[in-house]
Each structure stands twice: as structure tokens, then as C-alpha cells.
Structure to design on (832 residues):
């Protein structure tokens, strides 16, 4: 599967860069969770110093290859762009990607000696990697515990059409080579399993488990979980699914898995089945557009009622037509079933993509009712010296927010260990 | 569909259907191209400068280069072109052919000689061929053919007067324009010499000697002629402010008809040239860049402008701005302050950055609201903030004895 979005041409990049007003106290930079100095890297595109641009981004953002490709800019930097008040916002992510696509990571880095002690980082996703890099830069020895592969969700699950493997590997390899003292293979489920002389612990496991649909028929052969499918495809394997697939859900993962399955076999039908309408779809605009582009269809206002099967194998789904009522606690209009409106959609497979949930790991630290770990302003959990960040604290979020957590946690850990600011 | 004013003018006794003519340059160097220009609606052509035998024209290619913002956009165009490679015999034929095809357009020729005999022969031959006007290039910055090698003729006041006299002597009642360079110590002295020499008018002014750029990897200049480069004549929007000064200085000090040339890129520029004293405006870089079709905007824009302003003829504009141009010390001394239109402001903060690091620390910045605020006690009214505002939300409020005046830049 080839990457869909192309990198900007030099002409496109220069024209776009020139549109940037170079705002003082730039609102885009403030809106970026990692606070990437956006006007500065755009200036380096204008002047033709792309290496300078890479340094500027890298300084603020350890996962710069990912974010140039998958950051939902319209939710962050771009939403604050002053230029939008004149015509349209700057294509910031695309300019970011123009820099990373045209430069290589530095070699033979000049780092402080790693002699300030080991820090355990549980989880090698964006938050863990960001925290590790920042700690290593400040002279610590980050040890990452990771069961699967370094890189987390972007590396393991995001469609290769949006984030190709070789790019992801380039990023992870660079971070591993220079900033991580050791990687320990193993799933850590409680603090007591972490043996060794660690000065602090950072929990960044992300959300491991997927939510199940609470309707009859989920035990049938042919019912799958979205992230499972994404991991399979990202690893280079075939999903093994049939010709008529229904994806249940209305978030980024639902849209992503639908696109991936469509691209895998353009002859199949892939339908996203969602309780609410297009406006309520909680996915990033670019992903929705790409899904429509590749041929994914949408069944809106359809509440799943029962997955039907023949001989233990999925044959379709019964859904109830909904109408949208008043906004619920999510702020979106709530789907209400219309009586006697059930209809049947024949399907070969059902993919469930209704969300993720926290695991019951790390019973030692305090959690909220959703099972997410509670932290204070310094990212510290209820256990002294144990910090946490990323999705396990925020719930499902973005790479750049996890990176911001990792950076913040690293600073807090150093402050905790060394005192001062 | 709008009612339009008649754009025709009388220029040194020649009827022009608009003030816009094609200058002596590549667009007038081929018969077919010049023909197309006139057909497209330009009021006249000045055929590219010709010379007589004994002056070989050894053109080097490539000859064009440009500069502008980082993406490809011509703000300044440079050339290392020379005069036409066509012999006077051919130019004579073209004058005749064009005059026959376009009896109501101005067919002019441009000449450049070395000796009195050359100058006068050129004039006689073109006059006989039916040229409506003769323009003399005293100012081609490339490949000097003046009396002193390496120097433009119009850089010498004496030579300018002398050669003008020779030319006018031969031209008789055919109008003569002398095309000068802005690259002189005192443009007024040169214009006076042209006047003393008896020319009917002055073309102000030619391209500006320049070096367009250097390739920072090979250290070869632009345009790059097999690794080497020479100084170029600069034209295009970049030189418009220079030309405005040149025209206005001449117009304020010498009673002579001026043909404006150098940097006009649209009808607004042309109006400005005329407002400081030009009677018509020559174009070259604009049609070279975008084609002869650009005449439509020039004519329509001028016609609508005349209508909106209540002028009857383009000649009503000529010299309108001159009484307002004074030396710095003669200017009034208003109390000036920046005035920011907060409703229009988009909060980019550029005025704050400019005032903080290059002004008077007179703008305060509200980071939460993203709005600048002028501290009137510190503001001196320099107008730097106004220059950097991307949406013209800043104007300068000037006050003298309770009377208000505003500085805004119309674009």
C-alpha cells in the first residue's frame, strides 16, 4: 500500500511558506501541544535552510516524522492560524513534512554523558519515546519496557497509506540509537514487577483494550476488533476479511480501518455503520476525506441491534434507524431509535471500532472511574516518583498530545530528582 | 459596459489613442511582434534601437535574469541585451510597413550612433521612411557606444547637449525624444542639457545598471553565460520608485515634455508617472512578462479612473502631484501618531515586533487578546508599523493646530 498524500513540491512549499505572516507571539505555536516554533521553521523554508528547519522542529518535537504526516493540524496549530482571517490557514503540517522529507536526522550527536541514573519508562509509544529523549538529553539513562515494537500506535496501527513503515522506522531507529539506554522486552502490569535501580518511573502504556459492542452475536466468527486488524495490516499481513464489511463506530479508528480495508481490496464494499450523522462523526477531516476518496461508504443514523449469523459465521447485522435528539454529555446530538424501523445489512464481516479502554494494570496508582491514571500538575501519580502520561492519562488522544505529556513528564522528573525549576 | 472617457492624447503633435506605448525593447524588435502589439491595442511602438554599419551587435545569450520573492516572481527583470541586431535598412522597411498597416498609430524609431555623421544619417533615413518620432538612446547601460567608452552618453552633460543638437538639427520638425539614464549625479542638469540641445522631449528613464544575483554554490553571476556574467539593465516593478523620482525632478525643474518609462506595471503606476509629469507612459517588462493583452487593463483601468475622478482627458492628470512634492526640510511638522483599527486588526503582532525592535517601543501587546495598543506618549509616528501590517489596519493620524490629516497607502 502506497502513501496517499504526496510531499509538497519546492514551488508549493515556497508559495505556501510565503503566505505565512510570521506572526509575533505566534498563535499556531501556542496551539501546538508540543509548542513547535512554527513561524521559525517556515522561515527556514523561505530562506532555504531545511536543516535549520529540522533542528527547530526536532528541538520541540521528538516524533517529527509522524507529526508531519498524521497530526490533525486543523485541531491544533492550524485552528489558530492568523492567515485564516485573510483567506485560508497555512498548510502547516504539509510544510513540516516538506522539511522532514527533505532532510535526514543528524548523525554523531553531541549529547551530555548519560550518568545521572536510570529512569524506567513503561511503554515505547509517543509519550514514552518523548520522555526518554528529553531525559537522555538531560543526562539520564532511559530504559524503555516494551512488549511489542517501539513506536506505539503510529508505528503499529496507523495505515501505511498515511504513515509508511520505512518512515516510522527511520524515526524510531534514530530515537533508539541516540536516546534510549536499553529496551526491555516484556509486558509490565504492576509497579512491583519493575526491578532494578530506577530513580523514577514513567507509565505510558496507552490504551490496550478495545471496547466490545454490547449486542447479541459478537461471538460469531467474522466479528473483529479494529485495532487488531490495523496491527495485522501494518505488519504487512492480509486482514483475511471478506467482501462486504461493516465497520461499527464513528471515530478515527473506525474511519481508518475502513480505509485500510478498502485499499486492501478495492473490489469489496466497506461501510461505516454509525449511530449519528456525518456532522457528529468524531474523526479528523482529512481522514474522512481520504476514506470517501478511496470508496468507503457510510450508513448514518443506524444503531446496531444484533449481529446475525449462519453456521456460526457472520451473515449480516440488524440495525435500527435513529433520529437525532438533543445534545448529550458529549455535546453531540443523541441518536434515538425510531420504533419499527429495523433493517438488515448483509455482511461477511463486522469490525468493531467503538473505542478503547484502560487496562486494570498498575493497581498501585490511583485511577478515575474510567480506569485512567490520575496525575497532578507535575504528571506525578498518587505514588511518589511514579509519573504517567499519554492516553493512559488522557484517554484516546493524538500523537502530539502524548509527546507533550512525555516532554512535560521528563521535566517534572528532573525537577523531582534535582529540585529547582 | 461602463461609459468610458476618451483616452486619446496629443503627444508632441502625434495622435495617441491612449498614453500607452511600447518602448524600444524586444517587443518591438521583430516586425511581426510589433505588428501584434499594435493590433492588440497599444497606441504606438518605438522600434528597438538601431544603429549604422561599423557598430557590430554581438549579443550574448542567455541575456535575461530576474529577482523577486523566493517563489518565482519577477519583481526586477535584468537584461544584458544590446541594441537591435537589425540594420537600419531593415528598420526603415519596418517603419514603412507598420505605418502603412497602422496609419493611426505612432510608429517611432530609436537610434544610437557614435559620430555626428552616424546620428544624423540615422535621423535622416528614419525621417524619410516616415517615422513619427525619433528617440535617441543616450543611456543603454550595456555595451556603451557613446563617445567615451564605458560611459553612457547621458552621463555627460556636455555630450548630451552636443549630440542632442546634432540630432535635432537633422530631425527638423520630426519630434525628438532623448532617452536618459537615472544613473547620474544630477538628473536636472542632464535634462537642462537636453532642453538646451533643442530636443522636443525626454524619455525618463532607461534601465538601471545592476547585478541581478550570484549563484552561492558556483559563485557565478546571473544571468550565467557559461560561468560568467555582466552587469544588467534592471527594469520592472523594482525600479518604479526610482523612475518616479527621476520624472518628478525633471518635471519640477525643466520645462520639457516627458515620456515616462521604467517600472510601470499597471494603470495605477502609469497614473502616478503622469501625476509627476509624464505625458505618456512606455511599457516593456509588463508585455514581455504577460503579453500584449495587458493593454486591456491599462486602458480600462485608466478610463474608469478618469470617470471616477471626473477628469476629461489623461492630460488632466499630468503634473497633478508636483505641487505636493517638496524637500524634506520644507515639509510641515505635524504631531503624528499611529492609529490601529482594532476591528480590522487580525492580531499577527507584526506591528509590535517592528516597533519593539526597529521603532520606539511604542506599541504594547496584549498576548491573550492578541491585540496591539499604541502608547501615544511613546509613539512618534514613524509609520514603520503601518508598513508591516499585512491588512492595512494602521494609518497615521497627523495633527497641526487641531487640523487632522491621515496617511494611508492606497494599493
Amino acid at each position: 500500500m502506497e502513501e496517499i498524500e504526496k510531499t509538497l513540491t519546492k514551488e508549493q512549499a515556497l508559495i505556501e511558506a510565503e503566505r505565512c505572516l510570521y506572526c509575533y507571539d505566534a498563535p499556531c505555536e501556542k496551539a501546538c501541544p508540543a509548542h513547535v516554533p512554527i513561524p521559525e521553521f517556515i522561515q527556514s523554508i523561505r530562506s532555504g535552510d531545511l536543516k535549520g528547519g529540522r533542528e527547530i522542529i526536532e528541538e520541540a518535537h521528538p516524533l517529527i516524522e509522524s507529526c508531519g504526516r498524521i497530526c490533525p493540524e486543523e485541531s491544533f496549530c492550524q485552528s489558530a492560524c492568523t492567515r485564516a482571517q485573510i483567506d485560508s490557514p497555512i498548510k502547516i503540517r504539509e510544510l513540516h513534512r516538506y522539511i522532514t522529507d527533505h532532510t535526514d536526522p543528524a548523525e554523531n550527536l553531541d549529547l551530555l554523558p548519560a550518568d545521572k541514573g536510570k529512569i524506567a519508562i513503561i511503554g515505547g509509544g509517543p509519550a514514552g519515546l518523548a520522555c526518554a529523549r528529553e531525559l537522555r538529553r538531560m543526562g539520564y539513562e532511559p530504559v524503555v519496557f516494551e512488549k511489542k515494537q517501539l513506536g506505539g500506535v503510529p508505528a503499529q496501527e496507523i495505515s501505511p497509506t498515511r504513515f509508511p513503515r520505512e518512515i516510522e522506522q527511520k524515526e524510531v531507529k534514530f530515537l533508539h540509537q541516540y536516546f534510549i539506554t536499553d529496551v526491555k522486552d516484556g509486558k509490565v502490569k504492576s509497579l512491583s514487577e519493575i526491578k532494578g535501580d530506577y530513580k523514577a518511573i514513567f507509565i505510558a502504556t496507552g490504551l490496550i483494550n478495545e471496547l466490545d459492542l454490547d449486542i447479541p452475536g459478537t461471538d460469531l466468527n467474522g466479528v473483529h476488533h479494529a485495532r487488531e486488524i490495523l496491527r495485522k495490516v501494518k505488519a504487512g499481513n492480509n486482514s483475511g476479511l471478506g467482501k462486504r464489511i461493516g465497520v461499527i463506530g464513528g471515530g478515527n479508528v473506525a474511519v481508518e480501518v475502513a480505509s485500510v480495508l478498502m485499499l486492501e481490496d478495492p473490489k469489496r464494499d466497506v461501510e461505516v455503520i454509525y449511530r449519528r450523522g456525518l456532522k457528529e462523526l468524531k474523526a479528523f477531516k482529512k481522514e474522512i476525506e481520504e476514506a470517501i476518496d478511496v470508496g468507503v461508504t457510510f450508513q448514518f443514523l443506524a444503531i446496531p441491534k444484533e449481529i446475525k449469523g449462519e453456521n456460526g459465521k457472520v451473515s449480516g447485522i440488524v440495525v435500527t434507524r435513529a433520529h437525532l435528539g438533543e445534545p448529550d454529555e458529549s455535546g453531540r446530538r443523541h441518536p434515538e431509535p425510531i420504533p419499527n424501523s429495523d433493517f438488515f445489512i448483509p455482511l461477511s464481516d463486522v469490525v468493531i471500532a467503538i473505542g478503547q479502554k484502560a487496562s486494570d494494570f498498575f493497581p498501585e496508582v490511583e485511577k478515575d472511574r474510567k480506569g485512567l491514571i490520575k496525575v497532578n500538575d507535575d504528571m506525578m501519580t498518587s505514588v511518589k516518583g511514579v509519573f504517567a502520561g499519554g492516553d493512559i492519562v488522557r484517554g484516546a488522544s493524538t500523537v502530539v498530545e502524548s509527546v507533550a505529556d512525555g516532554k512535560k513528564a521528563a521535566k517534572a522528573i528532573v525537577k523531582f530528582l534535582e529540585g529547582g525549576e | 459596459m461602463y461609459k468610458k472617457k476618451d483616452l486619446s492624447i496629443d503627444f508632441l503633435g502625434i495622435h495617441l489613442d491612449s498614453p500607452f506605448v511600447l518602448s524600444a525593447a524586444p517587443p518591438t524588435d521583430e516586425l511581426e511582434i510589433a505588428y501584434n502589439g499594435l493590433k492588440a491595442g497599444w497606441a504606438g511602438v518605438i522600434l528597438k534601437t538601431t544603429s549604422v554599419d561599423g557598430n557590430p551587435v554581438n549579443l550574448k545569450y542567455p541575456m535575461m535574469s530576474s529577482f523577486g520573492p523566493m517563489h518565482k516572481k519577477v519583481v526586477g527583470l535584468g537584461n544584458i541585451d544590446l541594441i537591435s541586431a537589425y540594420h537600419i535598412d531593415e528598420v526603415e522597411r519596418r517603419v514603412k510597413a507598420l505605418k502603412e498597416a497602422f496609419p493611426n498609430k505612432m510608429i517611432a524609431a530609436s537610434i544610437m550612433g557614435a559620430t555626428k555623421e552616424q546620428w544624423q544619417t540615422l535621423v535622416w533615413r528614419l525621417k524619410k521612411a516616415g517615422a513619427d518620432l525619433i528617440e535617441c538612446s543616450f543611456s543603454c547601460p550595456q555595451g556603451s557606444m557613446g563617445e567615451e567608452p564605458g560611459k553612457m552618453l547621458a552621463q555627460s552633460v556636455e555630450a548630451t547637449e552636443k549630440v542632442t543638437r546634432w540630432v535635432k538639427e537633422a530631425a527638423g520638425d520630426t519630434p525628438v525624444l532623448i532617452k536618459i539614464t537615472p544613473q547620474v549625479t544630477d538628473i536636472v542638469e542632464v535634462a537642462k542639457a537636453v532642453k538646451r540641445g533643442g530636443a522636443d522631449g525626454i524619455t525618463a528613464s532607461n534601465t538601471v545598471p545592476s547585478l541581478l544575483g550570484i549563484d552561492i554554490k558556483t559563485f557565478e553571476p546571473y544571468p550565467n553565460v557559461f560561468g560568467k556574467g555582466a552587469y544588467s539593465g534592471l527594469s520592472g516593478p523594482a525600479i518604479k520608485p526610482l523612475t518616479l523620482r527621476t520624472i518628478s525632478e525633471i518635471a519640477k525643474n525643466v520645462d520639457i515634455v516627458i515620456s515616462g518609462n521604467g517600472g510601470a506595471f499597471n494603470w495605477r503606476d502609469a497614473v502616478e508617472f503622469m501625476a509627476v509629469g509624464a505625458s505618456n507612459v512606455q511599457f516593456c517588462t509588463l508585455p514581455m512578462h504577460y503579453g500584449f493583452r495587458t493593454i486591456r487593463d491599462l486602458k480600462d483601468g485608466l478610463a474608469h479612473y478618469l470617470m471616477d475622478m471626473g477628469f476629461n482627458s489623461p492630460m488632466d492628470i499630468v503634473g497633478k502631484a508636483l505641487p505636493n512634492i517638496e524637500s524634506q526640510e520644507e515639509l510641515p511638522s505635524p504631531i503624528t501618531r499611529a492609529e490601529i483599527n482594532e476591528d480590522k486588526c487580525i492580531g499577527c503582532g507584526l506591528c509590535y515586533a517592528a516597533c519593539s525592535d526597529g521603532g520606539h517601543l511604542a506599541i504594547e501587546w496584549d498576548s491573550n487578546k492578541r491585540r496591539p495598543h499604541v502608547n501615544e506618549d511613546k509613539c512618534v509616528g514613524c509609520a514603520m508599523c503601518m508598513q508591516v501590517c499585512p491588512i492595512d489596519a494602521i494609518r497615521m493620524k497627523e495633527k497641526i493646530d487641531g487640523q487632522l490629516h491621515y496617511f494611508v497607502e492606497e494599493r
